[in-house]
Design a protein that fits this description.
The chain folds into 2 domains: about 170 residues, no CATH class; about 250 residues, Glycogen Phosphorylase B (Rossmann fold). The protein is an alpha/beta fold and about 450 residues long. It has 22 helices and 14 strands. β10 and β11 form a beta hairpin. About 45% of the residues lie in helices and about 15% in strands. The N and C termini lie far apart (about 65 Å). α2 packs antiparallel against α3. The strands form 3 sheets. Strands 6-5-4-7-8-9-14-13 form an 8-stranded mixed beta sheet, with helices on both faces.
């Protein structure tokens, strides 16, 4: 084995050629000539007796050692980091990339990410390539090679650590840092597409999003239990009516919509389907006054611009959820009813279950314990929206309906978890609960 490794150490000529490519990319230069030279040398290597079959058929161990040798030789002269980016889900695509680029990446670094077969938003990646020189996105056809390199432990010093550098428990550093994308570009295109939707860039509008129960059926699941993220758009009806009375335009977003509810919310502008994908959803994320959204990765579009959300239907109540938003955001928690004890869980019990819950659960974890997640009512969502936009319920409305939600105070947050308290203080987060949760 040692002899095989030595036999496939790349030549200095090949190393120098790829180094020039990487330096050109890092310096915003167009590396056409250096890429051509590198390709010429790769073609020469195809005649290598030990590499010819490996290059043209599969990612064998010997080919992996050869690639590792090439990368290590280059890393002696320029910083290289390599990671896996789960690009098929908008939440992972935006937040994991945002965390690494904003908090972990060093100046002059060449960063290589291997993508999934599907890319949730290619326009987002195009913007990142324009804004951050030296970031390379490689196709899913190279996942096998990446996994081989990881398994053989031959590029450990070059790997991006998933838990520490891309998906930590606490994302709150993002909420107060500079935006990953500082401003929505191509204003003339924004105006045109907004016109098609029925909006103007200078209008005050609020986006509403629920994760449709049809979403996973159309996009494909990952084997984990996600049904608790689904909700009905009808629950926004009262909030939308209330918002219209305040002179702001409600906009419905969501790439997958199985049910037309315009008869229930005729005031809402429809920006679903294609208008909730690509560059359009980025523009809506940047220009909206607020997003009111359920438990979905789509709300992370606001985070890349450091814009606040009102997160409703919130579960789990945990640090990773509460910390992954922009400064000034708010959450409305879902209550949980215990069938066994015939009562609603307390605030501390909600936090305990949320902290213990794993997104990788394959079955309905709560139902198995005799627990039922209760959806937020239209009244709870309406009152939460009014609290956030500082439009209190009038005395007549208060008499008719009473209070439906309350804000957690600092003492309550601290008693649940000092770290949770610190995050909410740092990001000025408001946590709301149904009034009957004690």
């Amino acid at each position: 084995m040692e002899k095989s490794r030595l036999d496939v150490i790349p030549s200095l000529q090949l190393v120098d050629s790829l180094l020039v490519c990487f330096k050109d990319l890092a310096n915003r230069k167009q590396p056409q000539e250096s890429v051509q030279e590198f390709n010429r040398l790769i073609n020469l290597y195809r005649n290598h007796p030990q590499l010819q079959a490996a290059l043209e058929t599969s990612f064998t161990d010997i080919f992996a050692y050869w690639v590792a040798g090439l990368l290590k030789a280059i890393s002696d002269k320029i910083t290289i980091k390599i990671g896996r980016l789960y690009s098929s889900r908008i939440g992972h695509l935006t937040t994991n990339l945002d965390y690494y680029v904003t908090t972990q990446r060093v100046k002059g670094e060449v960063t290589i990410f291997v993508l999934d077969l599907q890319i949730a938003n290619p326009d987002f990646l195009n913007d990142i390539e324009d804004l951050y020189p030296g970031i390379l996105f490689l196709p899913a056809s190279l996942i096998g090679l990446y996994e081989k390199l990881v398994k053989l432990k031959v590029i450990d010093t070059l790997l991006i650590n998933w838990n520490r550098q891309m998906h930590p428990r606490d994302f709150s550093v993002l909420g107060t840092s500079r935006p990953l994308i500082p401003i929505a570009k191509k204003s003339e295109e924004v105006s045109e597409i907004f016109k098609n939707i029925g909006l103007e860039c200078n209008q005050s509008f609020v986006c509403f999003h629920n994760r449709d129960p049809e979403y996973l059926a159309r996009t494909g699941g990952d084997g984990n239990f996600h049904a608790f993220r689904d909700s009905e758009f009808e629950s926004f009806g009262k909030a939308i009516s209330s918002l219209c009375s305040l002179g702001s335009v409600p906009v419905r977003i969501g790439s997958v919509v199985s049910k037309d509810v315009t008869f229930l919310t005729p005031m809402a502008v429809n920006a679903t389907g294609a208008y909730s994908e690509g560059r359009a959803i980025l523009w809506l994320g940047y220009h909206a006054k607020l997003w009111v959204c359920g438990n979905s990765g789509l709300n992370k579009v606001r985070l890349i611009f450091r814009k606040p959300i009102l997160g409703v239907e919130t579960f789990p109540f945990s640090i990773d959820v509460i910390s992954s938003v922009s400064r000034g955001s708010s959450f409305l928690l879902r209550s949980i009813f215990s069938r066994k004890q015939d009562r609603y869980l307390s605030l501390s019990e909600l936090y305990k279950i949320g902290s213990e819950y794993s997104i990788h659960t394959k079955s309905d974890y709560l139902a198995e314990q005799g627990l039922q997640l209760i959806p937020n009512s239209p009244e709870e969502i309406e009152e939460s929206l009014r609290i956030i936009i500082e439009a209190p319920i009038t005395s007549s409305q208060q008499t008719q309906s009473g209070s439906h939600v309350r804000s957690l105070n600092s003492r309550e947050l601290f008693s649940l978890d000092p770290t949770l308290f610190s995050i909410c203080e740092r990001l000025s987060i408001t946590v709301l609960v149904p009034i009957f949760v004690s």
